[in-house]
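agent> Task received from the user: take the single chain below, predict its 3D structure, and emit structure tokens. No templates, no multimer pairing.
agent> Plan: (1) validate residues, (2) run structure prediction, (3) serialize to tokens, (4) report one or two observations.
agent> Step 1 OK, no nonstandard residues flagged.
tool_call: predict_structure(input=
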Amino acid sequence: LFAMAVIFTMQLSAQTTITIGDSNSTLQTSFAPVSYAYQNSYSQTIYPASDLISGGIVSMSYYCNAINAVPEGTIKIYMAEVQNSVITNFLSGVDFVEVYSGTIQWVLGWNQITFTTPFLYTGAGNLLIATIKDGTVYSVSNYYKASFALNSVVYHYADNIEYNVNNNHSGTLNHNRPVIKLTIADLDTYCHPVTNLSFDTENLTT
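)
tool_result: status=success, residues=206
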């Protein structure tokens, strides 16, 4: 029953793909979404509501200009809606939802990341994306296609810090925001995740 409920929540239709940023831009960044220069890394990037539509965000894509990194470590991606239009340091105390956890095998060009948990974006705030790499090795980082957006990216990386979106961190500000594609299912057809699911164990039969 639980498996059927999970499958039901993923049956999404009427999807729209939105690109935020200039897909022809010559700018690039190695700091966000994921830096491989150290074992662990953390970035937050903000995208304005004016570039988005409401709905269930089911996947996103980044464009890699150069592949240098060893694809190692667990990558965790979180999303939240915030009233902040810019960021100058990491935002904490935010109601983040973990949408993905796993290793990413980057390729040249667009890299689509399909979420294990879709994010319900209402459009009431701006979209904040937090990405954490938890690894054991470091290498030269990848380069991702970016566009200039003032006060839009904060990042940090280190070998001896275990990053957590619920903790305060001090980061470095950057203005080269990764170009992103978001696949969004229309709210009218979005199947919301099941909540408060319970089982009547007294009436179960074998």
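agent> Step 4: summary for the user.
The first strand starts at residue 15 and ends at 20.
agent> Done.
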